[in-house]
Backbone:
């Protein structure tokens, strides 16, 4: 072919270097596999560093009555019973070991007075369950995993973007991508591919996510023939910053509420009394996000359309010690001293509960050799994720995906990748340079963010969702002629054009699934169907590719064993 | 609101020049917001690294008006706007393009440092007061601004013999971990060349996480190196213990 590329060969290729990807790499290395981790940013910058509040694990260090059964029940209730129950069970059982491993690899969690790992309260968790390091738990986790992985011998390909999975017949055989720095192409041959590339938050205007979260892994899997599931369930975190404009959407950790922060509207009312009098501020995220949105919409919001979140009743020293990042973030970016005055907060697009449909035990997708873990995978969180369950998800299912990927690699023979796939991928990647009159990727992206924010947001109805879906399809058409200027050397406009393709595929899946589910459940709130519907409660929406068309079908949720079912009904 | 003018050093490792851009100011705007505005409206191929935009990931380091800063935390209302605001890449590292530099050397240094190695049969219990100081070191977001300003690296280019403040902070976090059983003083003395540091505190001044790099990490490590390798009493005790 005309375009040159380098080739690398590994047993297991992991796409994404956040918590799930690094935990998968460590597990695969421990099985003796040769492992590559590819990430779009520098190592250690993945969105896991932004995780603040903690890792949910029933260690029972603070509340002795906690155990996996209660964690399982909380997770299922939080997910409005749409979760893959087996994943929720595995997760609750294995999370404490995941935390202990981190500690044995050097992580330093905050301590109880008797020297154990300290745990804090969080929304939807019956007991104090979140192991944490102030409000920078994710940084501690990623640094620990990063150092462990590097010393075990992962090959890390930093600032490298994968644009296509390569196949040999039905099975995955590798991936095609480019170095962001030079723009040169690279082909990975691998017997197993683990997708751990996170979510799709960057398709919305107001988001806590960075530029990386463009749904790449989900789009790659979909294009390779894998199924996506529960794509209508997008979590809007209740508390993002709302002012000034440049920081809109930046996360304000739930730990503020976990540590006793209260929410008030513009007349000083603690409005959560009207939405969830029992759990108040520590209700689940879907409920709190809708409450804040409703207060603002009905004229009881703050000057900039949010709610007040106040922790200033706690001693200033305590606030600075337990929430140091929040203290600095507000002082430096918003001129607010949170030890003295309330913060202004409002909902921000935060997390995708849906994703690649996987098998619970092995994290294997519906394509042989393809695995997925973390935010990129679906199932564990159902219709709504509890705070703290994301970091534990990364540890538990990252490990399982890495193990299964390494074992799969041992059991399969060599594969062949025909050159035409590589040629097609290279051509697709370079086409935007040839267009002289198309739209800029920045403009298309901005339009997409408006479409998703306005029509596929917290509250939905049929009319909006149709507008949203049509909007995405119109932009997908415009993408055919997207125009990129400059050279291939570290060119953010070109990079965005590649990421946009994934964003549009995943956005279409979200809008389509949201339009189909005619009920309200968890993070999916339909104004035109405001109640739960039992029939919908028994099935997941599945997105798959038929020819060049995106299709949707329903899949009945498998029956839960009676012993687990009993756990759900007990108090 | 008035406009702000930016002069951004654009180019690659062969040639570069300042290019001027005008950006409308919004309330609370930070330098990174302005860079994004320029990308979206004027220079789609302007190379910039960033991720979290909240001061947590340490990706967006640059030199603004000659000062090393995280561009996501530097507000325009903290800068004089009469003159153009200059933005340049970190000078210590080789330029790839525009504001993006090659920081791979840092990752190579990190690989030299033996990881956390717990003592045998430890009980996994620690007092908060015993880990407070290590947690300070663990706040590091690897923005490499300390490496950028350290004159041993910036002016004397001692990267092959010197680890730099970032990695003294990392070693301090391991050495002072209550359950770690390894000594890294030999590494500090030889491979990481801690002796080159003459405590000018430039690193501490630029740390966006307010880590007391010099006082809390480097000076105590220097003392450990001296105790272990130059103090005759501890040298003698070590000999006896080894036997």
Residues:
């Amino acid at each position: 072919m005309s375009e040159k590329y380098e080739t690398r060969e590994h047993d297991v290729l992991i796409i994404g270097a956040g918590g799930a990807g690094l935990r998968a790499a460590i597990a695969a290395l421990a099985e003796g596999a040769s492992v590559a981790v590819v990430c779009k940013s520098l190592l250690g910058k993945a969105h896991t560093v932004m995780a603040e509040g903690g890792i949910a694990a029933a260690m029972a260090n603070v509340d002795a009555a906690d155990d996996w059964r209660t964690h399982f029940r909380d997770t299922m209730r939080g997910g409005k019973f749409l979760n893959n129950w087996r994943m929720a069970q595995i997760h609750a059982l294995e999370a404490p070991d995941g935390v202990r491993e981190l500690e044995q690899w050097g992580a330093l969690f905050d301590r109880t007075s008797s020297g154990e790992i300290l745990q804090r309260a969080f929304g939807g968790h019956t007991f104090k369950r979140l192991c944490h390091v102030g409000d920078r738990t994710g940084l501690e986790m990623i640094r620990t995993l990063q150092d462990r992985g590097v010393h075990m011998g992962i090959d890390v390909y930093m600032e490298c973007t994968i644009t296509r999975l390569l196949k040999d017949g039905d099975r995955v055989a590798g991936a095609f991508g480019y170095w962001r720095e030079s723009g040169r192409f690279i082909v990975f041959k691998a017997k197993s591919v683990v997708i751990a590339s996170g979510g799709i938050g960057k398709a919305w205007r107001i988001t806590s996510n960075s530029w990386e979260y463009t749904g790449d892994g989900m789009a790659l899997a979909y294009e390779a023939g894998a199924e996506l599931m529960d794509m209508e369930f997008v979590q809007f975190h209740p508390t993002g910053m709302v002012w000034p404009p440049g920081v809109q959407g930046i996360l304000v950790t739930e730990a503020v509420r976990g540590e006793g922060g209260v929410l008030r509207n513009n007349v000083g009312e603690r409005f959560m009394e009207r939405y969830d009098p029992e759990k108040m501020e520590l209700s689940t995220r879907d409920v709190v996000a809708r409450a804040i949105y409703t207060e603002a919409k009905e004229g009881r919001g703050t000057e900039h359309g949010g709610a007040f979140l106040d922790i200033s009743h706690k001693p200033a020293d305590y606030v600075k010690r337990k929430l140091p990042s929040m203290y600095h973030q507000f002082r430096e970016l918003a001129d607010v001293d949170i030890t003295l005055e309330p913060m202004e907060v409002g909902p921000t697009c935060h997390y995708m509960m849906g994703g690649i449909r996987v098998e619970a035990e092995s994290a294997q997708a519906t394509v042989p050799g393809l695995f997925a873990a973390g935010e990129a995978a679906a199932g564990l969180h159902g219709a709504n994720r509890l705070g703290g369950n994301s970091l534990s998800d990364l540890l538990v299912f990252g490990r399982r995906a890495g193990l299964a990927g390494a074992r799969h690699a041992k059991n399969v023979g060599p594969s062949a990748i025909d050159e035409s796939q590589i040629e097609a991928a290279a051509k697709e990647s370079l086409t935007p340079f040839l267009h002289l009159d198309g739209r800029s990727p920045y403009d298309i992206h901005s339009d997409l963010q408006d479409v998703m924010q306005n029509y596929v947001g917290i509250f939905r109805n049929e009319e909006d969702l149709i507008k949203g879906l049509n909007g995405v399809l119109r932009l997908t058409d415009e993408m055919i002629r997207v125009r990129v200027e400059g050279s291939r050397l570290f060119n953010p406009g070109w990079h965005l054009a590649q990421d946009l393709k994934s964003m549009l595929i995943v956005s279409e899946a979200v809008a389509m699934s949201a339009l189909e589910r005619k009920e309200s459940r968890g993070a999916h709130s339909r104004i035109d169907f405001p109640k739960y519907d039992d029939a919908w409660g028994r099935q997941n929406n599945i997105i798959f590719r038929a020819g060049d068309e995106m299709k949707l079908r329903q899949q009945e949720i498998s029956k839960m064993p009676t012993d687990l079912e009993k756990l759900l009904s007990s108090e | 609101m008035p406009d702000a003018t930016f002069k951004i050093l654009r180019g690659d490792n062969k040639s570069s020049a300042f290019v001027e851009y005008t950006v409308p100011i919004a309330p609370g705007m930070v330098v990174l917001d302005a860079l994004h505005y320029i990308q979206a409206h004027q220079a789609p191929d302007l190379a910039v690294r960033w991720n979290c935009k909240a001061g947590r990931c340490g990706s967006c380091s640059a030199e603004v008006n000659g000062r090393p800063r995280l561009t996501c935390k530097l507000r325009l209302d903290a800068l004089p706007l009469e003159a153009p605001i200059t933005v340049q890449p970190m000078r210590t590292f080789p330029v790839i393009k525009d504001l993006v530099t090659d920081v791979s050397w840092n990752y190579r240094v990190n690989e030299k440092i033996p990881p956390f190695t717990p003592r045998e049969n430890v009980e996994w219990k620690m007092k908060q007061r015993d880990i407070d100081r290590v947690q300070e070191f663990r706040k590091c977001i690897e923005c490499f601004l300390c490496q950028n300003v350290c004159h041993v690296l910036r002016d004397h280019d001692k990267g092959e013999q010197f680890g730099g403040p970032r990695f003294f902070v990392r070693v301090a976090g391991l050495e002072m971990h209550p359950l770690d059983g390894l000594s890294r003083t030999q590494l500090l003395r030889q491979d990481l060349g801690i002796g080159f540091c003459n405590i000018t505190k430039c690193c501490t001044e630029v740390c966006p996480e307010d880590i007391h790099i010099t006082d809390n990490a480097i000076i105590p490590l220097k003392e450990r190196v001296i105790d272990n390798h130059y103090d005759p009493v501890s040298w003698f005790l070590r000999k006896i213990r080894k036997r």
